[in-house]
Design brief:
Blueprint lengths: L1 E7 L5 H11 L7 E7 L10 H15 L5 E10 L3 H14 L3 E5 L7 H6 L2 E3 L8 H19 L8
Parallel strand pairs: 1-2, 1-4, 3-4, 3-5
Helix pairs in contact: 1-5, 3-5
């Protein structure tokens, strides 16, 4: 299974790239994690937030690889603790389909993205900067995998 992280935004600070790559690089071939940056539409002086969100959503939906199970990162989604996420990752692996994780821009995901999603995942009731979400997702997926495999990382 491949996990496709589709995230709005590009040109991240070096610490974001390093953090993401650290944990994505630890993922095994059986659930390789790959980042697909979705360019954010140009921001002008008078930005229509609804239009911006809709355009980001259109770009995200176009980037979903065929046949993927789609999980939208959404504050109203299900929250899992580490063992719960490990169980969910095990289900995704057993399902045999690739996974697409959708991360919206500063305004969140469009209604079209939320409707397309097979499920919704909330990382926390807290609001995180979008660049940090990439690092958190990569680390939590690696942690979930380590729990499934009995790897000592989770207990450190």
């Amino acid at each position: 299974m491949r996990i496709h992280l589709l995230s709005v935004g590009s040109r991240m600070p070096p610490w974001v790239t390093a953090g993401y790559e650290e944990y994505a690089g630890r993922m095994p071939p059986e659930c390789r994690l790959s980042l697909h940056e979705i360019p954010q539409p140009a921001l002008g002086r008078k930005v229509d937030a609804a239009r911006l969100k809709a355009e980001e959503g259109r770009r995200l939906l176009q980037a979903i690889p065929k046949g993927c199970r789609v999980v939208a990162l959404d504050p109203r989604g299900r929250a899992w603790d580490s063992s719960g996420l490990a169980h969910r990752l095990g289900d995704w692996l057993a399902g045999g389909r690739d996974l697409a994780l959708l991360v919206g821009g500063p305004e969140g995901l469009s209604a079209a993205c939320l409707e397309r999603a097979d499920e919704r995942w909330s990382l926390s009731p807290l609001t995180f900067p979008h660049p940090l979400v990439r690092v958190i997702l990569a680390e939590q997926l690696y942690r979930a995998w380590s729990i499934l495999r009995g790897h000592p990382y989770h207990r450190r």
